[in-house]
């Protein structure tokens, strides 16, 4: 049986799917041409593996793909001999007609896990105490037939505030032709020459179709002390992690409101100037991820608890996806608002940051709101997963 992955393996003609693709309404960057996999490994060895791969590559080559949530798990990157800039793959094709949606875990069980995390935070003292954890849940979608990736990606480009993406994931005997497809509003790190930037998001409110209710949701978020605390931890962590690489780094505009079609967020644009221009953007992404926007603080403590409290493995959700050219320039995004697609099955992921003062039911509702962009792209009702 021919897998979807085989359809775009290196030796085949440039046919359907690129190795990785990122873009929006204005166009796409895609990895094309001859390609080979970068040796796989954990975050610790990323720089060494990337340097080796690029040492034999041409000036137009690029590395792109996905870093998993777990820093000890193997990443999945491709070295392609060129990037191509393409117009959006506009298509009316519906992704698929869905036949079943199952919340895993249910919103109720998720809220219980949030309550447990809050109790842990309350009970702990000292520097190593848990200060923030991001807990996620999933929706398992079964479609009638194979899900159309161009159809899904095309629908995801409709929100100009997000970067739509599709990256190949490693396949196993049971799961051939897997992809991560999503539309993320969160830039992990971008490098252009000596300039580096990041746009961390944390702190959320669901948007409303009613303009008055929408404005109230925005001003409620801007005034929320809990959300500002949740956000500040991410900004501080990114500043601390990037500062050894930078001779200038700051947040010139401070923290403000930003929005996608379905969510309001607190966001802070960080801008810096690198000490060394040739550090690959993928290496910077490897240092930063997973930030407290998707993991927590302290990072290792939160990652361990996430493994205990979440019943479904995150795999590449909440990792990083992006591309890096031969001279190191490129863009890496936080892999959120996404679904893992494999044939006729999809698994949607959404998480929410928990800090002292969080309310379990409100966090469950927030994850439901974060599913909305993907649900809309699938043509499913936005209420799916709220009460399940
Ligand atoms: C973890 C996710 O969102 C992060 C990004 C923005 C706002 C977030 C929040 O308010 O909790 C999360 O930190 C997700 O969408 O799965």
What's this model, at a glance?
This protein is of the alpha+beta class. It contains eight helices and 20 strands.
Please characterize this protein's 3D structure.
It is a single chain. This protein is 27% helix and 34% strand. The protein has helices at 46-55, 107-123, 149-156, 211-222, 225-242, 281-288, 299-309, 360-378, and strands at 20-24, 27-37, 62-67, 76-86, 98-104, 132-143, 163-169, 178-184, 187-192, 195-199, 201-206, 246-250, 255-259, 263-268, 270-274, 296-297, 320-325, 330-334, 338-342, 345-354. The chain has one domain (6-89, 98-378): Anthranilate synthase (4-Layer Sandwich). The strands form two sheets. It has a 17-stranded antiparallel beta sheet that branches. Strands 11-14-13 form a three-stranded antiparallel beta sheet. The radius of gyration is 20 Å and the shape is globular. With 388 residues, the protein is α+β, with helices and mostly antiparallel strands. The two termini are 36 Å apart. The chain binds ligand ISC.
């Amino acid at each position: 049986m021919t897998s979807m992955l085989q359809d775009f393996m290196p030796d085949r003609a440039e046919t359907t799917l690129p190795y990785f693709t990122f873009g929006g309404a204005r166009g796409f960057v895609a990895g094309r041409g001859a390609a080979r996999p970068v040796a796989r490994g954990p975050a610790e060895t990323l720089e060494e593996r990337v340097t080796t791969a690029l040492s034999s590559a041409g000036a137009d080559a690029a590395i792109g793909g996905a870093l998993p949530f777990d820093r000890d798990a193997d990443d999945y990157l491709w070295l392609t001999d060129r990037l191509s800039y393409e117009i959006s793959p506009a298509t009316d094709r519906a992704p698929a007609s869905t036949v079943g949606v199952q919340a895993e875990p249910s919103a109720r069980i998720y809220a219980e896990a949030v309550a447990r995390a809050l109790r842990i935070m309350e009970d702990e003292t000292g520097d190593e105490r848990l200060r923030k954890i991001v807990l996620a849940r999933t929706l398992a979608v079964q479609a009638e037939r194979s899900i159309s990736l161009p159809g899904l990606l095309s629908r995801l480009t409709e929100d100009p505030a997000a970067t739509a993406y599709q990256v190949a994931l490693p396949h196993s005997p049971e799961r051939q032709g897997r992809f991560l497809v999503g539309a993320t509003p969160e830039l992990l790190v971008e490098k252009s020459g000596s300039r580096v930037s990041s746009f961390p998001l944390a702190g959320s409110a669901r948007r409303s179709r009613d303009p008055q209710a929408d404005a109230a949701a925005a001003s409620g978020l801007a005034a929320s002390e809990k959300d500002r605390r949740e956000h500040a931890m991410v900004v501080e962590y990114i500043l601390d992690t990037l500062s050894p690489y930078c001779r200038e780094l700051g947040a010139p505009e401070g923290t403000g409101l930003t929005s996608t079609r379905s969510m309001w967020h607190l966001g802070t644009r960080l801008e810096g100037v690198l000490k060394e221009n040739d550090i690959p953007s993928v290496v910077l992404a490897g240092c930063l991820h997973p930030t407290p926007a998707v993991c927590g603080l302290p990072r290792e403590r939160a990652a361990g608890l996430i493994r205990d409290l979440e019943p479904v493995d995150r795999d590449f959700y909440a990792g990083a996806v992006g591309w890096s050219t031969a001279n190191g320039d490129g863009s890496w995004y936080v892999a959120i608002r996404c679904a893992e697609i494999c044939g006729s099955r999809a698994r949607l992921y959404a998480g929410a940051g928990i800090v002292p003062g969080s309310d379990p039911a409100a966090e469950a509702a927030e994850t439901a709101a974060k599913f909305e962009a993907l649900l809309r792209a699938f043509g499913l009702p936005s209420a799916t997963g709220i009460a399940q």
